[in-house]
Amino acid sequence: MLKGTRMLERRKLGRQGLEVSALGLGCMGMSQSYGAADDIESIATIHRAIDLGIDFFDTAEVYGPFINEELLGRALKDRRDKVLIATKFGFDIRDGKTVGVDSRPEHIREVANASLRRLGTDHIDLFYQHRIDPAVPVEDVAGAVAELVAEGKVRFFGLSEAGAANLRRAHAVHPVSALQSEYSLWERNLEDEIILLLRELGIGLVPFSPLGRGFLTGTAQPADRYPDSDYRRRDPRFQPGNFEANMHAADAVRALATEKHVKPGQIALAWLLHKGADVVPIPGTKRRSFLEENVGAAEIKLSGDEMRRLEVALSPGQVSGPRYTPQMMALIDR
């Protein structure tokens, strides 16, 4: 089914002309957080993604730091005209360590220029503020990105994990094309307010971690089975007690996958793809086999009853433990 080139549906993010494949590829895990890096396989995965119709690639300066942008730049060196690159600014990185947030306009410009060099390109297609900086008005952030857009260094502006008030304020200065936030059957925090606001303002949604860090694929393991370098070792939802409850909550995904003769992760991605034509998930992987499995989700149809069945089984009260540690939750703007 996936031997040759395929065409994924195209979707629009925002009202400013940004159009991408219905699935993107999150590249963070190729360089950090989820086990040892394998640059050869990662680059092969990026190339295979293009063959399969994916043209939307997500990275950030903080991934590594820096080395993920460099990896993506190498992988896309002779394919730049076939793809759209999203990267992010907004952290204070010193001596290879992230020590806080920094969205001062002069810093945004520094990061943009450095990201352009690492990516080996003359423009960034989508430039996100990675996290809201409480010390810098978001109007100043939007204004700084607007200047980069006017100069041709950036095409579109995005925010990540921004709350309703900051979304409105930023959008009033320069149009926001996309909000990147965690959203999945596993994490539904956007449904009460944010998604309604995005549709009011005409902003697309780019869900990261759409597979629930492995819970929705059935591959999650208890925290102590991951190496120290793996983020999941410290993830509250992988800790004893929470882990067992969460594996049980995800049974509904695995059950429906069995009925439809597909993989659980494909059901989770299909659910997201059915949530609207303005939703573009970016499942992350560094292996071609998982990439091909993810792309296959685009062919799965879910009925209204099947959608509701999943949503009831994985309603917010069924998931055990906070999504992040307190330190990381402090960076989420709600």
Kindly list the characteristics that best describe this protein.
334 residues; alpha/beta; seven-stranded parallel sheet; two-stranded antiparallel ribbon; 12 helices; 36% helix; globular
Going across the major beta sheet, what is the strand order? 3-4-5-8-9-10-11
Overall geometry comes to globular
β-strand percent reads 15-25%
Measured between the Cα atoms of the first and last residue, the distance is 42 Å
Give the ordered list of helices and strands: EEEHEHEEEHEHEHEHEHHHHHH
Radius of gyration: 19 Å
Low-confidence stretches: none
The overall pLDDT, averaged over residues, is: 96
Number of DSSP helical runs: 12
Fraction of residues in helices?
A: 25-40%
Total beta strand runs: 11
Q: Report the biggest beta sheet as strand number plus sense, adding barrel if it closes.
A: 7 strands, parallel
Structural class: alpha/beta
